[in-house]
Amino acid sequence: MSRLFLRTLRDDPADAEVPSHKLLVRAGYVRRVAPGIYSWLPLGLKVLAKVEKVIREEMESIGSQEVRFPALLPREPYEASGRWTEYGPNVFRVKDRKGNDMMLGPTHEEFFTLLVKDLYSSYKDLPLSLYQIQTKYRDEARPRAGILRGREFIMKDSYSFDIDDAGLEASYQAHREAYVRIFDRLGFEYVIVRAQSGAMGGSASEEFLAVSETGEDTFVRSAGGYAANVEAVTTVVPDAIPYGEAPASHAEQTPDTPTIDSLVAHLDEAFPRADRPWHAADTLKNVLVMLRNPDGTREPLAIGLPGDREVDAKRLEAVVSPAEVEPFDDKEFAAHPGLVKGYIGPGALGTEGETGIRYLLDPRVVDGSRWVTGANEQGSHVLDLVAGRDFTADGTIEAAEVRAGDPAPDGSGPLELARGIEMGHIFQLGRKYADALDLKVLDQNGKLVTVTMGSYGVGVSRAVAAVAEYAHDDLGLVWPKELSPFDVHLIVAGKDETVVAGAEQVYDELIGAGLEVLYDDRLGKVSPGVKFKDAELIGVPTIVVVGKGFVDGVVEVKDRASGERQDVPLADLLATLRD
Ligand code: ATP
Ligand code: MG
After folding, report:
1. CB under 8 Å to 49, separation ≥6 — which residues?
2. Which ligand is nearest the CA of 206, by number?
3. Which residues constitute the domain of residue 266?
4. What CATH number is associated with residue 536?
5. Which of 242, 247, 371, 561 is 20 to 30 A away from residue 7, measured at CA?
6. Reported confidence tier of residue 198, pLDDT bands at 50, 70, 90
């Protein structure tokens, strides 16, 4: 440690919010260069290499072969797949000196497809699985939490190539099992969740989420075993309601009721119900957003949903992707005089309606359901407005928040919500990229068939931070054995010649036994107290202290996680460490 390129810090970095970010910077594992861009220092690089080792071993175990692509990539293949435009502002684009467009790769489907097309031509060459551990670039809107969400980060991405659907299914399952082993070895508490709603395209896709309160992903699970990313949850749609008996709709004066709460209070006062008080869920709220398409064009969208629910930004982003969601601000209201802010109703909406704004409804707004909603007039609402009878929309949208207690779509009980960090994503791509880039091989009958693909990602740099999210305590990091930068943190506690010589001897012995040892040999001004603090912060799971006891042939072995210490005779040290 007298030579190690390391300065531990006593204070948390000012921009850090989550424990992993604070501790990885304080303990000298990473260092910020710019928002979402980090350098790896010697300790961090060692942990990173250990994560990579676990991943390599498990990828090799399913017969995947390692390759490495460049990060600097030409435009044309992204053009062919449509992603040059679709990525919008989320990628880094550069030009070379001749003015050619290039991209810093955010992921590599196109290039693996082209490489296989380049070299392979027969069903006999398949199945094939290739992977790389490589640097990716994404201009994230919200780089966050240190290396958890970087703009430059390291990903393991792999791609499977099969001749038919059964082959893809087998490749997918093999990857899934490899991922289970990877995340077991990394020590995560994780869940495997559905990542895509069946409604949206159907192909199988699952995410591995490390369960963590600091995670950005919300997922749901039911006691009956349903688990999904919140974006993938589909609403259980109530049956349509016969509305033969429903009274005709009527507009009423509801002054000063621009919010749902104020409206419900006013309804109870001015239009009390006989059976029960009014609920927010009796009102139909119409929320406007602007969608920005990848080509830069913008269009408004109106979403109608029960007044007791908010629009969930992530669910909305997922369904409108690749378009991006922007707020519908006062300037937009000024540009759409047909909309009365706070009193917007279905009457003004829909491509057939007065404003021509596309109008999509939450699936709970079934035909025959009866609503209180805006009358498109300042201080006025309509009551007894019946869906299907008095208004229709351009379709439905899965954008309302999912709440604890909502029913699981597969009938397996009420949902509970939790948070996680997306660690891995496996995806049956099917023929999308093979079609776009014309990857075909000859089948048994000499006929050209399109190859079917899967793509599979693990956040390698993110994993270092995600492990640190659980592997720490108040004093610092506490690495699991498999990922720790060193096996043993050896401290010489004392300046006495015998003690120092003893520590050197122990060091040689441990190194000789094949252990990786971080040796705190600092003398001079560094007190034992400082050494212990650093050892706790750095988080090597086993700490060996050579101090005064050495004259009696005894060293101290301390377990970083439990804090337990024991005096061990020198002769038993290796055996104790192996245990
Ligand atoms: P997220 O939803 O977190 O933005 P994503 O769905 O865009 O991730 P994928 O395209 O599925 O990510 O990438 C595969 C894996 O790469 C993810 O599961 C995640 O572990 C990792 N990853 C993605 N974006 C980042 C990032 N900005 N920083 C670090 N790791 C990332
Ligand atoms: Mg993903």
Report:
1. none
2. 2
3. 250-396
4. 3.40.50.800
5. 561
6. very low
